[in-house]
Amino acid sequence: MATLRPLLGAAEEAQNLGESLTMGMTHRFAVLIDNYRYHFGNWSRVTGLSVTWQQVEHRVGSEGNHSWIFPGVTRYEPITLSRSAGPGSRIVQSWLTQTSKAPRPQSGTIQLLSFGGIPLVSWRLSEFFPIAWSIESFDAAGAKPAIETLKLAHNGFLADDMTLDKP
């Protein structure tokens, strides 16, 4: 029995190590567009992956002061992607140029990748389009990369559309 305890401790440590390798901590994000001409590559920061529901309250007249609360309209925040400018920036610029000429909503996926490039979590975006792009000012004396930022409006990442079955 005495030799079994160190083995169990080692097994628990190995399991904890395996779980920590798959946690989504300070990794990178891949943005995959369904239009195969555009692969936005990896990004170091993603903000705005959030959803809220408007609170709807209904007071029933026969129930005294009791009210019922329901979720209302679903609202998604714009998503902001940031990374060091590089070769992938040309693809984004090409997409922005095309979208400026002929706007067409795109669909795609944002993936949280482990440090080994393994997708851990995905968010499927429906009908997104750019609402802003910028690059921070260039300063050769700063000795830091220029950060590219792309802001996307979208119709959501939850599979909650309420399509009616048609006969």
Can you give me a brief rundown of this structure?
The chain has 167 residues and is an alpha+beta fold. It has two helices and nine strands.
Describe the model:
This protein has two helices and nine strands, in the order αββββββαβββ. The termini are far apart. The mean pLDDT is 80. β4 (51-59) and β5 form a beta hairpin. The protein is α+β, with helices and mostly antiparallel strands and 167 residues long. The protein has helices spanning 4-21, 88-101; strands at 28-33, 39-43, 45-47, 51-59, 67-76, 79-84, 106-113, 119-135, 147-153. A seven-stranded antiparallel beta sheet has the order 2-1-7-8-9-6-3. Strands 4-5 form a two-stranded antiparallel sheet. The chain is elongated and about 70 Å long.
How is the topology of this model organized?
Elements: H1 4-21, E1 28-33, E2 39-43, E3 45-47, E4 51-59, E5 67-76, E6 79-84, H2 88-101, E7 106-113, E8 119-135, E9 147-153
Antiparallel strand pairs: 1-2, 1-7, 3-6, 4-5, 6-9, 7-8, 8-9
Outline the biggest β-sheet: 7 strands, antiparallel
What's the Cα radius of gyration?
23 Å
Hey, roughly how much beta strand do the residues contain? 35-45%
Global mean pLDDT: 80
Judging from the principal axes of the Cα atoms, what is the shape? elongated
The unreliable regions are none
Count of extended strands? 9
What structural class is derived from the secondary structure elements?
A: alpha+beta
Strand order, main sheet: write it out.
Answer: 2-1-7-8-9-6-3
The run of helices and strands is HEEEEEEHEEE
> Separation of termini?
67 Å
Helical stretch tally = 2
